[in-house]
Design a protein that fits this description.
This protein is α/β, with parallel strands linked by helices. The chain has helices at about 15-45, 60-75, 100-105, 125-130, 140-155, 185-190, 210, 220-225, 250-265; strands at about 5, 55, 55-60, 75-80, 90-95, 110-115, 135, 160-165, 175, 195-200, 230-240. The strands form three sheets. The protein has a seven-stranded mixed β-sheet with strand order 4-11-10-5-8-6-7, with helices on both faces. It has a two-stranded antiparallel ribbon with strand order 1-9. The two termini are about 25 Å apart. The relative contact order is 0.19.
Length: about 270
């Protein structure tokens, strides 16, 4: 069964004429964030800060999280967090709504994402993803997936964390699709926990379809449209983890992770 994520009272996309004032207001903020804050971030990510720590967290991770949280605020998202992300090597698995999912997760916990290869060619977001430890995957390529799994296992064994969207793509915000079990092989092979993460936009998930890509909507069109959408909450739920050995095999692990995410979305406050 594919469970719906949005309520009957789902928010409608704002008409273009009403988005224009907010777009004009936020555009200077976006330019400042990219042209001023981003160069500062890049300076702080130089090798000389590699071993610095900030309140127990690697300083460079804190810098990246801060910039991503700032980007979310520029787009009018009020960030909320429920639960606590695991420390140490973890495979984070989340429902996939839109491109903002990566910024939302990065604002809370540093992790290298597995993302489709097309993202590497997106303006700004692709450039940032390439420098945020992203592992790019060519859809439909078995050879590419094998290389991705190998890289995921190596990173987890080195003590790093990886984030994936097991649906394999976005679904317009209407539903949470089946999770591909093969991607969970990395957690099984590396012997690390899996932590499901539910991403909820708007109160009770009413803005899932607003944030998601529309039919035939390009990244650029979605980016500009979201810049003019009204301010909304964006809640990230770090759910009960699945420990090594808790689930019998990768398929059961995928089903259990998806079930916890669907439940969290359907009961979002």
């Amino acid at each position: 069964m594919i469970a719906p994520t949005s309520s009957p009272g789902a928010a409608a996309r704002t008409p273009a004429a009403l988005r224009a004032p907010l777009t004009l207001l936020r555009l200077p903020l976006l330019l400042w964030h990219v042209l001023v804050h981003l160069p500062i971030v890049l300076l702080l990510l130089m090798p000389f800060t590699r071993h610095w720590r900030w309140r127990g967290e690697p300083f460079q991770h804190r810098v990246i999280r801060g910039w991503q949280a700032g980007l979310m605020r520029v787009f009018g998202f009020r960030l909320r967090r429920r639960g606590t992300p695991l420390q140490g090597p973890t495979l984070f698995v989340a429902n996939h709504v839109g491109w903002v999912d990566i910024s939302m997760l990065h604002s809370q916990r540093m992790m290298g994402f597995v993302a489709k290869d097309e993202i590497s060619r997106w303006p700004l977001v692709g450039w940032l993803a390439a420098r945020g430890q992203t592992i790019f995957h060519r859809r439909g390529s078995t050879e590419s997936l094998g290389g991705v799994l190998s890289e995921m296992i190596q990173r987890l064994q080195r003590g790093q964390s990886v984030g994936v969207f097991p649906e394999g793509g976005t679904r317009g915000g209407h539903e949470v699709g089946p999770f591909h079990a093969r991607i969970f092989t990395a957690a099984v092979e590396a012997g690390v926990p899996v932590q499901p993460v539910a991403l909820v936009y708007g109160e009770r998930g009413r803005a899932q379809q607003v944030v998601a890509f529309g039919r035939r909507e390009s990244f650029a069109a979605n980016f500009v449209r979201l810049l003019g959408e009204p301010a909304r909450t964006a809640t990230v739920h770090f759910l009960e983890p699945i420990r090594p050995g808790e689930a019998d095999g990768r398929r059961r692990m995928a089903e259990l992770a998806r079930a916890r995410i669907v439940e969290a979305i359907s009961h979002a406050p």
